[in-house]
Structures are given as C-alpha cells and as structure tokens.
Amino acid sequence: MARCAYCDTTILFGGKSQGDRRYCNNTCMANGAMAQAAAQLSDADVRYHVTLVHRGNCPQCSGQGPVDVHTSHRVWSAVLMTQWSSRPIISCQRCGNKRKLGDAAFSLVLGWWGFPWGLVMTPVQVVRNIAGAFSGPKPDVPSDALEKQMRLRLAAHLLSRQQGD
Ligand SMILES: [Zn+2]
Ligand SMILES: [Zn+2]
User: Fold this and answer.
1) What is the pLDDT of residues 72-100, one digit of tens each?
2) Over the stretch 115-159, which tens digit does the pLDDT of each residue have?
3) Which of 61, 68, 75, 76 lies in the 20 to 30 Å Cα band around 48?
C-alpha cells in the first residue's frame, strides 16, 4: 500500500502525486518540497540537533523527555464532506498520548456524520490513535520520524535565512 512520502501515513484513499512520490494532500506535498531541500543538510549537524531535542524537555509542557514525534489522527464530517488528517507533534510521551486520546474523542464525536467516508474513517482514525498511544516511539533512541522533522525544521530555518538576505 502507498505511503505518504512526507508524513509516512498509509494512503488509504486518494492522495496527491508528484512525479513518483505520493502524498496525502497539498500540505504534505508542500512539506515534501521542503524535505527535498532538507536532504542537503549535513548528517552530523542533523544528528546533533536530533540528540539535543530528544534528550531535552518537552516543547509542549516543559516536562522531562524523552521527546519524539507523536502522530495523532482525526476525522470530522459534515453530511457529504469528510476530512481526515494526521498531525505529528514533537513532544513527550504524555503530551503525545493526551493528543492521541483527544483526537480519538474528537473523531468519535465529529467523525461519523458524513456518508460514506465518515463511517469508514472514524473507526480507522480512532484505532490508529489508540494503537499509537500503546506503541509510541521507543524512549531510548530518537525515531526516524524525529530525524525527519528536525531535518525539516533546520531546512526551514535555512530557507528563511536565505530568503531574508
Ligand atoms: Zn502525508
Ligand atoms: Zn509534554
């Protein structure tokens, strides 16, 4: 099954293609362009920042780490329209789980009311959140997702500095 080249979410239905890469939506496609710029950063530089963030305090609650990428999933519907998204944040396990359970509750309340995708996607997103809360990133090593996110942040910083000149 196809996976989004940016956020690594499995693309169940639809998505956007750019060359041989597939993305969930336009946002991921824009971020994908950034990711290609990010590939030019030096590995040592990225690894240094990844370690710093992983061992640092949580950017959400300032609590103790380890800090990593936690992705929550939500869906909402309005009769003939259903929208779903995956939302990665960099945080500690507690904040990550809080957000996963929050998005599960959000989806349970607002997800169903569309036909047919609301009925299809609501259980999918709820299960993704609950499964994710029990199988988060390993605490002892930074995940590949964290490295990817840090690379993007460094690239964004680099791009904005280049544009500022
Ligand atoms: Zn995506
Ligand atoms: Zn936190």
Assistant:
1) 999 999 999 999 999 999 999 999 999 99
2) 999 999 999 999 999 999 999 899 999 999 999 889 888 888 877
3) 61
In terms of domains, do 26 and 93 share one?
no
Indicate if 2 and 47 belong to the same structural domain.
Answer: no
- The mean of the pLDDT values for the chain is 91
Q: Are residues 30 and 75 in the same domain?
A: no
Number of domains in the chain: 2
Residues 143 and 107 in one domain: yes
Give the Å distance between the CA of 79 and the centre of ligand 1. 24
| Strand 81-92 relative to strand 67-78, pairing | antiparallel
Q: Which residues surround ligand 1, an ion (CB under 5 A)?
A: 4, 6-7, 24, 28
135 alpha carbon – ligand 2 mean position (Å):
17
**Angle value at C-alpha 40, between 34 and 46, nearest 5 degrees:** 90
